[in-house]
Amino acid sequence: MRPSRRTVLAGLSAAAATATAGCLGGGNGGSDEVPDDAVESLPTPVHGDEDAPVTVAVFEDFACPHCRTFAVDVHPRLVDEYVDPGDVRYEHHDFPIPVDDRWSWEAPGAARAVQDTVGDEAFFTFTQRLFEEGWTDGSPTYSESLLRDLAGAVDADPDTVVTAASEGRYRPVLEADREAGLDRGVQGTPSVFVDGTLIDRPDYATISSAIDDSR
User: Fold this and answer.
1) pLDDT, tens only, 19-38
2) What is the model's pTM?
3) Which domains does the chain carry?
4) Residue 55: Cβ within 10 Å count
């Protein structure tokens, strides 16, 4: 059974008071109706050297404010210090709790359309700008107009991206990622794994230390 919005918000309040702040979830994500041309699978979006000695896997909900903090404050530092130099293979995984009944699904659905049609590099540029530009005063303010603008900026077709998001074309991909996260013990977002080990705190210092210990 999908957790109610009241349950999710209660989880958010509790999480904000802990050192391991995050958006809490873990119930059944459910299955809404998907179109006949739904995409059943896609490769995991990967940033960095495929053969890097350390793998960092991150599970996120695009409507989770803690994921936004991670994306804006932590992810760019990891890219600069570890991904670009070739020390880390960075994987993105979707984990719609959902914090928001619409955008926890449509935002990653749009991102997966970008990945599917333009590639992983465009996917990471698109998702980074979603987190940077799609929030106001700590809340997501995503819109069709923003999706169109960001899709065009990475040379994806805006109509294709918006339609895929609104119709749930990549819903099976998102649900499969979510189930994989549950199998790995994910209970909230952001959840960060370094070489398969779940990190206690999704902050830069903790992740950096775990990466250094794994090399």
Assistant:
1) 345 898 655 555 567 888 89
2) 0.87
3) 36-214 (3.40.30.10)
4) 18
